[in-house]
Design goal:
The complex is a heterodimer of chains A (456) and B (450). Chain A is of the alpha+beta class and 456 residues long. Helices cover 33% and strands 15% of the residues of chain A. In chain A, helix 2 links the parallel strand 3 and strand 4. In chain A, helix 6 packs parallel to helix 11. Chain B is of the alpha/beta class and 450 residues long. Helix content of chain B is 39%, strand content 16%. Chain B contains 14 helices and 13 strands. In chain B, helix 6 links the parallel strand 5 and strand 6. The longest helix of chain B has 25 residues. At the A-B interface, helix 1 of A face helix 8, strand 9 and helix 9 of B.
């Protein structure tokens, strides 16, 4: 355990005297199985689940009483009492209570953004170790009092005398007593995320069968990964659940075809989005352990992958210029250009399956000459990805999607896949992560299998 | 937890009532706590008095060095914490009379949870029938005495093989174990010291300091208790259990500051995975505790293939395969220690447990046959056979059956998971290096069976 006063080791100086960036290594991860809302975790709070995910990570890597450089996590659906959610989870975990923590929130990109932010701090030499994470509970969602009741209660608190108080109370109307439940609607459009995606799905002419096929693959890939023990060192059971409760290993194209559309029913085109090819509301938490190479080496910890780079983008969905969940379509080309890479340079693609239509619309945009030229400023289409490399161990359609926890799930799984894969044509295996988020945002990242530097 | 009945009859009205009605009066046992004296009173050390008392004299000197209050003659009415009978030079059954009848006069002066320990030689190594008769007589004597002792006192014996003396490291190790609270639920048992190898710990409260230990089936019950006890004794831990028990396993790992390895031990490369984990994370592997086990009880007439095969596969098949991997790896070669959990069912049999008893009998056979394979590296392998232990598993036995099962031993109570763990921790220590291929029962001297 490093002494409390010991600073993070600064990056190495090069012979030219310029600071170089260190590597930020993904050591491993842990999550609890994801549960459909109203299921196994109905009575679990965000703090309960994040603490459980942390404790499983601590147990896996022997981090008891360790002072981690920084822990960052977040939740999308958050109670006002959870203002210091991550720090409270750290205090409830087996980590050293001297571990600092902060909350971050970027809708469904929260988990990936915590990884990128902390990886940057490690690269800069500000910290040697970090835990990134995310949690969400749609079961234990916050319910607020109505705006009318809230104003009355605040005024009541300010009222000084009994007559004043009675006067304030007399403003109370029955409708003020109705609670204000959270919803997935976009504040600026009033449309739900599903309805937004239905517009995009229709715009890119994504068919029902293609969406069902993506869902089918997601379930079968995830089930196969569980069967071969892929998740044995990525998942720790919680509250009687040892696999994601949304997983349907026996689903078939026929079964998926029987489901009735739930989104896009008022559009002119045929409605294609069903409960089968859309992710359900889910509860769960995930964590990722990051560190500098020396930090991992000193503890005999694995070095699965390095966090190479990340990029965020946002689109103007409010005025209908782009679909709500299409920001990754813009983030990925910028990220590839900065790193001098093309789709051929990747061995794994992890595209978050908010809806099957989201993934397919994004792929369609990248394959579209017109979109490439006019929106991405390229000579033609960005490119086509090899579908055999897409979400090979399943993704959100099968696992479920506890908003802020998805990033951690993907980063830890991809890091393990990259390490298992070994080098490709003499270079480390490479993976691309793409996560869309509410508010028209998206965050994408590149991970590379860790390979020891020459001579080590 | 001491069971409610034991608490009730331990003092006040309950104690009087039990006495009047002649009900069993189990004692609250003396269990190890760091800092408490090894023995709760003076130690009476008796030799056989047949002229060759070197073994007893040497031992007395060592015990004085441990800070014990050693007496060679009992004082009238003085309470005693333990009686040690050094009978290593018995040459004829008639040699027993002197020391045994002297000890008899002090039995009523034993404090609660006192200890009687005999030290003698194995009858197999005797050269004449008379010597063998004298030595084997001690076996019957000790087991009977253990049944006579009351108030939590126990009697156990140490058998010395050829070339092993009363002050050989593992003789002293076994003696310390039997005298201490670590052996609370071990009664009427013998441990054979076969060689003079072994090393007593520099810190008696941390005998496993610096060791890396793997415990399988560590998520709950006896396995979790083993992890806690090895941690207390200074070991660094890898705790292993099936992925579905991962949440309990994580809690144990965090409690014992170890690492959790979610692994099905019946998987093909389980042994290699365990070795790799221990080497990468802890830089070595010194101790493996095979604790993981399952029961799938059925009368043999109703037994199906899946019940039979799963029990054999988990309880002994996995141990055989993991041991093979350990021996082949070359990474498990510096005085390695293996301790397997067997069961009294595997010795005495148990109705409805043909599969389980076959697997646990298998463990005993495996341990005996593996001992010579480890000996060349200074290693050892032993088994511990628990009797009735108070666990989640035994708590599911119907009340009346459970109540009978837990009273049917000389200590008239069930043992605790920690009692099994103490025996395992001792056998995993370097002080027990001279003990190998043995089966130690932790059963309070169960009245049924061997």
């Amino acid at each position: 355990m490093p002494a409390a006063a010991q600073p993070a080791s600064a990056p190495q100086e090069t012979s030219e005297g310029q600071g170089t960036l260190r590597k930020a290594v993904v050591v491993g991860g842990n999550r609890i199985p994801f549960a459909r809302t109203g299921g196994a975790y109905t009575k679990s709070s965000n703090q309960d689940m994040l603490t459980a995910a942390l404790d499983g990570l601590i147990a896996r890597f022997g981090l008891q009483e360790e002072r981690i450089g920084e822990v960052a996590a977040g939740a999308v659906l958050k109670h006002s009492r959870d203002f210091n959610l991550t720090r409270e989870a750290v205090l409830g975990s087996a980590l050293s209570p001297e571990t600092p923590a902060y909350d971050l929130q970027q809708a469904c990109a929260t988990g990936l953004e915590t990884v990128l932010g902390l990886a940057n701090k490690i690269k800069l030499g500000q910290i040697d170790s970090a835990i990134a994470g995310g949690v969400d509970s749609a079961s234990d969602a916050p319910i607020a009092v109505s705006e009318g009741l809230r104003e009355i209660l605040l005024d009541l608190n300010r009222a000084k005398s009994l007559p004043e108080r009675l006067k304030v109370l007399s403003r109370l109307r029955p409708k003020d007593l109705a609670p204000d439940a959270p919803n997935t609607g976009e504040p600026r459009t009033g449309l739900s995320m599903g309805e937004h995606q239905a517009l995009t799905t229709a715009q890119w002419k994504i068919g029902r069968e293609a969406q069902d096929e993506l869902a089918f693959n997601s379930h079968h890939n995830l089930a196969a990964a569980y069967e071969r023990g892929f998740f044995d060192d990525l998942v720790t059971p919680y509250r009687g659940l040892s696999r994601d409760s949304n997983l349907r290993p026996d689903t078939s194209m026929e079964k998926l075809a029987t489901l009735k559309p739930v989104f896009g029913k008022s559009l002119g085109a045929e409605a294609t989005m069903t409960a089968g090819n859309s992710t359900p509301l889910t509860d769960g938490a995930s964590t990722v352990l990051l560190g500098a190479e020396e930090w991992a080496d000193a503890r005999g910890l694995p070095k699965l992958a390095v966090v190479v780079d990340g990029e965020a983008a946002a689109v103007d969905f409010v005025h209908g210029k782009d679909g709500l969940l299409m920001a990754p379509a813009f983030a990925v080309p910028r990220l590839l250009a900065r790193n001098g890479l093309s789709f051929e340079d990747f061995d794994f693609f992890e595209i978050h399956e908010a809806f099957a239509g989201t993934v397919l619309s994004t792929l369609a945009a990248w394959e579209d000459e017109e979109f490439g030229r006019t929106r991405l400023g390229l000579d033609g289409a960005l490119g086509k990805i090899d579908r055999a490399k897409l979400n090979v161990n399943g993704s959100s359609l099968a696992a479920g999607h506890p908003f802020a926890a998805t990033g951690g799930r993907i980063v830890a799984s991809l890091a393990k896949m990259l390490q298992e894969n070994g080098p490709v044509d003499g270079r480390p295996a490479r993976g691309l992560i793409s996560i869309c988020a509410a508010g028209g945002q998206g965050v994408v990242a590149i991970l590379e299998a860790y390979s020891a530097p020459e001579g080590r | 937890m001491t069971d409610k009945y034991t608490l009730f009859v331990s003092h006040g009205f309950g104690k009087d009532l039990a006495k009047k009605l002649g009900l069993p009066q189990p004692a609250v046992l003396r269990r190890y706590k760091a800092g408490e004296p090894l023995v709760p009173g003076p130690v009476l050390l008796l030799g056989s008095g047949n002229g060759n008392a070197a073994g007893a004299d040497e031992l007395a000197a060592v015990l004085l060095g441990w800070g014990l209050d050693v007496r060679r003659n009992a004082l009238p009415k003085e309470k005693l914490g333990a009686i040690i009978l050094v009978l290593d030079d018995v040459e004829h059954p008639q040699d027993l009379a002197g020391p045994v009848l002297t000890a008899a006069q002090s039995l009523r002066d034993l404090v609660p949870c006192a200890r009687v320990v005999t030290i003698s030689r194995t009858s197999a190594s005797a050269e004449t029938p008379a010597v063998a008769a004298g030595r084997q007589g001690i076996d019957g004597l000790l087991r009977s005495l253990a049944k006579e002792l009351r108030a939590g006192a126990t009697a156990n014996g140490i058998l010395l093989g050829d070339g092993v003396g009363t002050t050989s490291p593992s003789t002293l190790g076994a003696l310390r174990f039997f005298l201490s609270g670590r052996s609370a639920f071990v009664d009427g048992q013998f441990l054979t010291v076969t060689t003079g190898v072994g090393q007593l710990p520099t810190d008696a409260d941390r005998p496993l300091a610096g060791k890396v230990a793997v415990v399988t089936g560590a998520a709950r019950g006896i396995g979790a208790a083993i992890a806690r006890t090895l941690y207390r004794d200074g070991a660094r831990l890898v705790v292993v259990d099936i992925p579905a028990a991962g949440d309990h396993l994580a809690a144990v790992a965090n409690e014992v500051h170890g690492t959790a390895l979610q692994l099905d031990i019946t998987a093909e490369h389980a042994g290699e995975r365990i070795i790799a984990h221990a080497m990468e994370r802890h830089g070595g592997l010194d101790i493996v505790i095979h604790n993981a086990g399952i029961t799938r009880d059925k009368l043999l007439a109703n037994m199906d293939e899946s019940r039979w095969n799963s029990v054999i596969g988990v309880n002994i098949g996995s141990q055989l395969r993991i041991n093979e991997a350990l021996l082949a790896s070359g990474r498990f070669s510096k005085a390695p220690r293996i301790v397997s959990v067997a069961s009294t069912s595997g010795i005495a049999g148990n109705r409805g447990q043909t599969n389980y008893a076959a697997s646990k009998g298998g463990v005993i056979g495996m341990v005996r046959a593996t001992a010579p394979l480890l000996a060349e590296n200074g290693g050892s392998i032993n088994a511990v056979a628990p009797g009735f232990i108070e666990t989640e598993m035994t708590a599911r036995i119907p009340f009346a059956t459970r109540e009978v099962a837990r009273r049917l031993n000389s200590l008239q109570q069930g043992g605790r998971p920690g009692d099994v763990a103490e025996a395992i921790a001792f056998l995993a220590s370097d002080a027990a290096a001279g003990i190998s291929g043995e089966v130690l029962r932790v059963c309070g001297q169960n009245l049924v069976g061997a």
